[in-house]
Amino acid sequence: MKKLIVAASCALAMAAGTVQAKDWKEIRLAFDVPYEPFEYRDENGELTGFEVELAEAMCEELKAECEFVIQAWDGMIPGLLARKYDAIFSSMSITEERAERVLFSDPYYITPGGWFARDGFSADVTSKEEMEGKVIGVQRGTTMDTHATEEFGGIATIKRYTTAEDMVLDLEGQRLDVVFVDYPVGEQTILSQEGFKEVGKPVKLGQGVAVAMRKRDEDLANKVNAALKKLKNDGTYDAIMKKYFNYDIKI
Amino acid sequence: MPDFIAQWLNQNEIFTAMTIMQYWDGLVNTVQLVFLSLVIGLVFAVPLAILRTSKNPLVSGPVWLYTYLFRGTPLLIQLYIIYYGIAQIPGIQETFWWEIFREPFYPALLAFALNTCAYTTEIIRGAIVSTPAGEIEAAKAYGMNWWLRMRRIVLPSAARRAVQAYSNEVIFMLHSSAIASVVTIVDLTGAARNIYSRFYAPFDAFIFVALLYMALTFILVFAFRKLENHLLRHQRPVGS
Fold this sequence. Notes:
The complex is a heterodimer of chains A (251) and B (240).
Chain A: H1 2-20, E1 26-31, E2 40-41, E3 47-48, H2 50-62, E4 65-70, H3 76-81, E5 87-88, H4 96-99, E6 103-109, E7 113-118, E8 135-139, H5 143-152, E9 157-161, H6 164-172, E10 178-182, H7 183-189, E11 196-203, E12 209-213, H8 218-233, H9 236-244
Parallel strand pairs in A: 1-4, 1-5, 8-9, 8-10
Antiparallel strand pairs in A: 2-3, 5-12, 6-12, 7-10, 7-11
Helix pairs in contact in A: 2-8, 2-9
Chain B: H1 3-9, H2 17-52, H3 57-72, H4 75-88, H5 97-101, H6 105-129, H7 133-141, H8 146-176, H9 188-199, H10 202-231
Helix pairs in contact in B: 2-3, 2-6, 2-9, 3-6, 4-6, 6-8, 8-10, 9-10
GO molecular function (chain B): transmembrane transporter activity
InterPro entries (chain B): AA_ABC_transptr_permease_3TM, ArtM/GltK/GlnP/TcyL/YhdX-like, MetI-like, MetI-like_sf
Subcellular location (chain B): Cell inner membrane; Cell membrane
């Protein structure tokens, strides 16, 4: 009996050893599709987008076989913890709450906040004097809200909206002078219409978006960080970014 | 706010002096909005209720249509239509109306007043039609004309029957005013939502605001009990 237990524990130890020594030649990555232009299916049904291409480049760099898993957003972190995949590569912003449950890599992109206004608007959005008395629209609780409140609280009137649609309506209706919103949202909903323009420069806020992995897989995180760093430096990242964006999201 | 209170409050994590001031501003906005819309609603509801009881369908019909429309649709939809709809009227921004409707307060006041006026009209109408026929016959026997009958007999008698139902309407109006925050008014609910999104503390932010609403409701209930005691004192048993 004793021998059996010893043998069993030896076998277990060996099995555990193989898990420990996992060399990450196969990595399963999760995406929530569609989230244009980060991940979506093209006309042929092929998965593509900024994050998909970046993930492919990363896998090549790691010399790993990558399997792409489609996962709905609300089950993203539970699916990771349940080992349905090894990493989330799906525009997950770094927050303290999430960092308690998952291990984040270094951030690989950050969407800036953009200032948008009607064509007649001329004030400088970085100047406290020129923004005095202006009415600024933001989405409640976003990093743009925090930034605008810190910069212009008490100087300009800040109106907080629950949805971007309501805010854009009030910009059209001239209740707002200028809105400060997630750049892609502003580009799609405001700049696509006649009579609106971007003012000032996009502002990078927050900690950015990173790959999320299980807390125990620090070896994978190290590899991912090294690969992302290489891609950012050797121009691969910039090439992919230019395909999808006409503004800078690199961090 | 005195300095020592502010200092004492600033030891808190969420309920600092600044947060309390936001709630205070929200309270002021809520009370203003609800009080004004109730006053406007009641002032218009009395004549409308009298018109609504008219036997001539050309007189009572439009009032019926108005109360039907405003009681038949959610207040949130009415607020959206008035707030966002007005801004979509071509050229409105160049007229003086825009000075009024640019701010969210007046569209909200208009929506709330129209809504509560519709409900109040129906409450008063119900009280008017249930006036005992004997009271009216007696008034006629005294030779009172329509106007005098209305002023001395029908309306005072209707007010007594309407007051309980109206107190409910007032409390509903207070609670409905919470939707003002969707059109960027920082009322009590708007303040709570701002504080919730800043501290990610839903329980603290919303339970505190719920207590404030309860305190306001308590004041209303108390005031209406006094009013009922006054209006219905003839119904008290003799000697009490």
